Amino acid sequence: MTATISADTTPDTQPAPPPQGPPPKAPKPPMGARAAAATTGPIGRALVWFLALLWTVPTVGLFISSFRPEADIKTTGWWNWFTDPTNVTMQNYKGVVDHKVFGLPFSEFFWNSVRIAIPSAIIPIVIAAFAAYALSWMKFPGRDWLVVVIVGLMVVPLQMCLIPLLQFFGSDWFPDSMQGVVTIWIAHSIFGMPLAIFLLKNFIGSLPREVIEAARVDGATHLTIFTKIVMPLSVPALASLGIFQFLWVWNDLLVAKVFGGSARNQPMTYAMVDMVGNRGNEWQLLTAGAFVMMIVPLIVFLSLQRYFVRGLLAGSVKG
Asked: Which CATH architecture has domain 94-313?
C-alpha cells in the first residue's frame, strides 16, 4: 500500500523574507587613517604649510635681526631689512664671541653647556631603560603601584624639588668633590627620570612577546635579553627621548643656576642673561647669541632625525 502526499502537506520552500531595518553601517576607519587622509588632501597640505610658515616666521625674524646693526634693531622692525638687504653687520656675533662674564670667555660657557647636556641626557635614559624593562617584563610585588607612583611624579613641579635637593647636596655626608657640574647632572637626571621611564615602558612593553619568550626558552637571562634584543629594538625610542632630554637641558637656566655654584660651572644660558645687560637693552647680542646656541641642538636633531620620526610613530601600528 502506497501512501500519497497531498499538496497541502508539501514542505514550505518559499525564501524567508528579508530582515527589516536599515542595512548595517560599514566600520569607521581608525583615527590615524582619518587624520592621514585629512592632511594629505589639498586643504590639509595647505593648512600644514601655513602652520609651518607661521611657526618659522619668528625664527626668520630672529636670524635677520642677528645681522642688523644695533641702531636698526632698536628703532625698526626686522621686516624693514628687506628695504635695504645690504645693511648687515657681523659685529653682533663678534660681540658674542668676545663677551666675558666674570673674566671668563664665552667659549668656556659653550663647553660647559656641552659637558652638562651630554651626561644629563645619557644618565636618565640609561637608568630609565633598565627600569622600563623591569616594569614591562619582570614580575614582582608592587609593580603596578610603582608605575602609578612614577606617573604621579610626572606632575610634580620642578620648583618644588629645589629646596629638598639643595639640602641634600649641602649635607655633610655629600662629598664636596661632587659639587658643581656633578650636582647639575644629578638634578637633571632626577627631574627627567619619571617621563623617561613612562615613555620607555610604553615602548618596551609593546615589543613582540614571542621574541622575548623565545629568548627565555633558549636560556637567555634578563641581562642578555635586555642588551641583545630590547636595546637594539628600542633605538628609535631612545633617540627620540634623548633629543627631548638634550634640548631641555641645553636650554635650561634655572637648574644650572641653582645647583651650579660659581660662574665656572654655568652654561651658555647664564652668559646670555649677562649679555642682555641689567636693563635688557643689548638686543643685538641676544639675537646673535641665540643662533650660536642653536648650532649644537640643530646638529643633534639632524643627526637623529630619522630615529626621531620612527620613535614618534613606533607603537601606533600593531602587527
From this structure: Orthogonal Bundle (1.10)
